[in-house]
Amino acid sequence: MAILKVARLGHPVLRQQARPVPVDAIRSPEIQRFIDDLIETMREYDGAGLAANQVHALQQIAVIEVQGNPRYPDAPLIPLTVVINPVVTPLGEEMEEGWEGCLSVPDMRGVVPRYTAVRLQCLDREGARVELTAKDFFARVIQHESDHLNGTVYLDRMRNLSTLSHIAEWQRHWLGTREQAD
Ligand code: NI
Fold first, then answer.
1. Residue 84 within any structural domain of the chain
2. Cα(116) to centroid of ligand 1, in Å?
3. CA 12 and chain centroid, separation
């Protein structure tokens, strides 16, 4: 396993569309190793999720996990979820604003509106079909990571940039004011 280099805002790979992974390629040693590396990199940098674009690979693969994350100490736990070729569908019109950060936008936070409930259809790391319904924080992280695979970052989703904060100022002035996610 390896810790991969994370692309930061300004690298073109963050603005590109990731390609679907062919189902029969998912169980290949290369893809399996890449998934392991994504997981290890997410954990190394305390991400709540990590998408392939963020490590310079344009494949529709993302990983999500929240288990006692020091960057998100109050976030609900999310078991390790490997998401391949996701299709995310909002369930209803309701949206909620919450804080987000991103390993590709280091040391910043901003308030982002997201659908409060979504359906996620994707493949898992065995290539099996997965369909699940996610709410609130989990739904937020799914939307954030799915956006990455489409070349979108959370800054694009902000209604305006007035809440965009450096982490030190965020901790001083904003911490605890809303739900937060990555
Ligand atoms: Ni991100």
1. yes
2. 18
3. 18
Q: Please tell me which residue in 30, 65, 97, 145 is annotated as part of the active site.
A: 145
In the residue annotation, 145 being an active-site residue is answered as yes
Please answer whether residues 176 and 98 qualify as being in contact, where contact means their C-beta atoms are separated by less than 8 angstroms: no
Cα 180 to middle of ligand 1, angstroms: 13
What's the gap in Å between 43 CA and the centre of ligand 1?
14
Query: Which residues make beta-bridge pairs with 135?
Result: 117
Pick the closest to residue 119 from 151, 87, 147, 146 (CA basis): 87
Tens digits of per-residue pLDDT, 127-167?
A: 999 999 999 999 999 999 999 999 999 999 999 999 999 99
The per-residue pLDDT for range 107-120, each reduced to its tens digit, is 999 999 999 999 99
In contact, 21 and 84? CB cutoff 8 Å? yes
Residue 181 lies in a domain: no
Count of structural domains within the chain:
1
Whichever domain contains 18, its CATH number is: 3.90.45.10
> Does 5 map to a domain?
no
Q: Please list all protein residues whose beta carbon sits less than 5 angstroms from ligand 1, which is an ion.
A: 102
Structural domain boundaries, residue 124? 12-176
